[in-house]
Amino acid sequence: MKLDRELLKGATETIVLAALDRQPLHGYQLVEHLRTQSEGILALGEGTLYPLLYKLEANGLVRGRWEKSAGERRKRVYSLTRKGHRCLAERSAQWEQLVRGVTLILGGKSYA
Amino acid sequence: MKLDRELLKGATETIVLAALDRQPLHGYQLVEHLRTQSEGILALGEGTLYPLLYKLEANGLVRGRWEKSAGERRKRVYSLTRKGHRCLAERSAQWEQLVRGVTLILGGKSYA
DNA sequence: TGGTGATACCTCGTATAACAAAGTATACGC
DNA sequence: GCGTATACTTTGTTATACGAGGTATCACCA
Fold first, then answer.
1. CATH code at A72?
2. Number of domains in chain B
3. With helix as H, strand as E and coil as C, how does A12-54 read?
């Protein structure tokens, strides 16, 4: 089942911040990471992730550093800033609020 | 705490369908219903709800009927169609998938 | 009778976010 | 040297939730 494209809106930032909180990752890695860690449920494309990372960096929530080892392609590795960490806490709390609100409406009832 | 306006995107239809599955409601009532039932977490404005109801009706997911009792204002009461019920099942399942995916990334960790 | 507030509906413009698609470039195996 | 996987970038499209404005009716009360 493919998730509705609108459903994830607003939560994307949160999951990116959460992933980067665990370990620094570069963009392409992040795509794979999110896909596998979410068991394929959250499959963000590069066209979503890269612009998002730029925005997060511009807002001071993540910091990107170019890395280049011998025999490797250059890559930009992102890590969470302190501000990003605080933002993650906030967004994480909001996410839980949302889940709570929706759950209250759905009422634990299964519609399947 | 006010929810980020983007966070709810995509879930709005689901909660409206779920509310109407329990009981027919008219638009204004629906605003109140969602707000109180979700303990104030989901506070949709009329500018969100009315156009959404028109869309749902155009798609055959809900049916609206004008009602007018003596000494009452006219109101349009919406109820779920069979198609709407099926759609609710689908969207409800998608919602649970999303929650599962995000939870896997957040990893049960509390960022507060 | 006239004013206020709650009810109930309607509509437009705006912001923004996620995506698809296309492009560039490098490393590696064969 | 050719294909494939890696890695990053950009653009245009679409959907949606919201704010702010509007109209109208009813109950209440002074």
1. 1.10.10.10
2. 1
3. HHHHHHHHHHHCCEEHHHHHHHHHHHCCCCCCCCHHHHHHHHH
Percentage of residues in chain A with pLDDT exceeding 90?
80
* Nearest-angstrom CA–CA distance, A57 and A87: 13
At residue B34, what is the residue type?
L
Residues whose CB falls within 7 A of nucleic chain C? Answer: A 3, 5, 8-13, 43-48, 51-52, 55, 71-73; B 6, 26-29, 46-47, 50-51, 54, 72-77
pLDDT digits (tens, 9 = 90+) for B25-84: 999 999 999 999 999 999 999 999 999 999 999 999 999 999 988 778 899 999 999 999
Query: Cα(first)–Cα(last) distance of chain B, in Å?
Result: 14
